[in-house]
Write a structure and sequence with these properties.
Helix content is about 35%, strand content about 15%. The chain is of the alpha+beta class.
């Protein structure tokens, strides 16, 4: 899609992508962070899209916090999540200093938006935050009863006004929504094609 719009193909750095040594990109590790920063500095991507794991910051995550073990697990997950957020913020600042762009995506209700690393980026006069419904980009979920739209209220943060404008898309209320329960949240982490096209167009 992006190449058809005249964009150069980039790279994916996440827990599903492998590095040259065969290991995945785990940004809780300093070695991965340094290697990624070197890659960004060398290749100078026009736009970086950041979507760190949102599980530590979700409302559903807190449902298991009633026990001491549950509280410890959540605290450890949030600490790892905080490291990821701070690294994303470092990359976004690098992009802005170089006159390039970034997009950060997390669920609208995620408590990560209140973290200092994200709030400091959001306070920049060159940065925009917009809300969207993922069903407006064609996100669906399937179960035994069939396929249904997934609303998944989402917030995007970017230093491109054009990208912000095109990603600010709400549900038209022409359909019903499937709640993200019973294992449906995982597949909903995959960007629908229409969202990818919108990012590229922006």
């Amino acid at each position: 899609e992006g190449e058809a719009m005249g964009l150069r193909k980039g790279f994916s750095l996440d827990l599903t992508a492998k590095r040259a040594d065969g290991k995945v990109w785990d940004f809780s590790l300093k070695s991965c962070q340094m290697e990624a920063l070197q890659l960004v500095n060398r290749t100078k991507p026009f736009c970086v899209v950041g979507s760190p794991p949102c599980t530590p910051w979700s409302t559903l995550q807190n449902l298991g916090s009633g026990t001491e073990a549950g509280q410890k697990r959540i605290a450890e997950g949030k600490e790892r999540g905080r490291i990821h957020l701070e690294f994303c913020a470092k990359v976004y600042r690098l992009q802005m200093r170089a006159g390039r762009y970034f997009i950060h995506e997390h669920p609208k209700s995620a408590s990560s938006w209140k973290e200092g690393s994200m709030d400091s980026i959001a306070q920049s006069p060159a940065v925009f935050k917009v809300d969207a419904c993922m069903c407006a980009f064609g996100m669906v979920s399937e179960d035994a009863e069939g396929i249904a739209s997934v609303k998944k209220p989402t917030t995007f943060m970017t230093n491109s006004v054009e990208i912000a404008n095109i990603l600010s898309r709400k549900c038209d209320k022409s359909h019903w929504h499937q709640p993200l329960l019973s294992g449906r949240a995982g597949p909903a982490a995959v960007y629908p094609p229409a969202l990818c096209r919108a990012m590229c167009k922006g």
